[in-house]
Design a protein that fits this description.
The complex is a heterodimer of chains A (about 110) and B (about 110). Chain A has about 110 residues and is an all-beta fold. In chain A, about 0% of the residues lie in helices and about 50% in strands. The radius of gyration of chain A is 13 Å and the shape is globular. In chain B, strands 1-9-8-3-4 form a 5-stranded mixed beta sheet, with no helix packed on it. Chain B has a 4-stranded antiparallel beta sheet with strand order 2-7-6-5, with no helix packed on it. In chain B, a hairpin with a 6-residue loop joins strand 3 and strand 4. Chains A and B meet through strand 4, strand 5, strand 6, strand 9 and strand 10 of A and strand 3 and strand 4 of B.
């Protein structure tokens, strides 16, 4: 079965650079969630989209933005990167409703040097 | 969002049942209990979820108390590959906003 696809799997950027992470949800899923997981930390919710509209917002820095496109894939744009942005970034997708499970991708490991 | 409380860590012998408890005393009537696990640096993996009835699938069983204030995830025959951090999550929200809020989780170690 198709899973959530994230690209790239690994990314190395320098401070003050920009990064774009991509997420391709499971077919027919209409909701995408982004999470950040720092070293030794639990996943922290950043932002979510439902039917291409932002539906919820967590602890996402103003330097970050995201959107969901017409084909339901999503991109997380991160600007003015800081060393503290180094983390695993996970995307998850689900089909509307809290009674349906959300599935996670394998993540993008971002390293800022 | 309702908060959950889980033991920080647990150990289990290979082949035995692993019973992971979770308290969610402030859960509301429309909130589901979800369990995920994360094997080192991999994406969280869905295990099971339920509202008020006990649930079972090929991975695990979920037992929810009648008052819904606590639940137990049961891995019937733990293997070394079940070593992971297990997260109990209470999920609520409007359609399209049902984010999963991860707490501290339980680090389960399955020993040979």
């Amino acid at each position: 079965a198709a899973g959530v696809i994230q690209s790239p799997r690994h990314l190395i950027k320098e401070k003050r650079e920009t990064a774009t992470l991509k997420c391709y949800p499971i077919p027919r899923h209409d909701t995408v969630y982004w999470y950040q997981q720092g070293p030794g930390q639990d996943p922290q919710f950043l932002i979510s989209f439902y039917e291409k509209m932002q539906s919820d917002k967590g602890s996402i820095p103003d330097r970050f933005s995201a959107q969901q496109f017409s084909d339901y894939h999503s991109e997380l744009n991160m600007s003015s990167l800081e060393l503290g942005d180094s983390a695993l970034y996970f995307c998850a997708s689900s089909f509307r409703g809290q009674s349906t499970e959300a599935f996670f991708g394998q993540g993008t490991r971002l390293t800022v040097v | 969002d309702a908060k959950t409380t889980q033991p920080t860590s647990m150990d289990c012998a290979e082949g035995r049942a692993a019973n992971l408890p979770c308290n969610h005393s402030t859960i509301s009537g429309n909130e589901y209990v979800y369990w995920y696990r994360q094997i080192h640096s991999q994406g969280p993996q869905y295990i099971i979820h339920g509202l008020k009835n006990n649930e079972t699938n090929e991975m695990a069983s979920l037992i929810i108390t009648e008052d819904r204030k606590s639940s137990t995830l049961i891995l019937p025959h733990a293997t070394l590959r079940d070593t992971a951090v297990y997260y109990c999550i209470v999920r609520v929200g409007n359609p399209g906003s049902e984010k999963l809020v991860f707490g501290k989780g339980t680090k389960l170690t399955v020993n040979p």
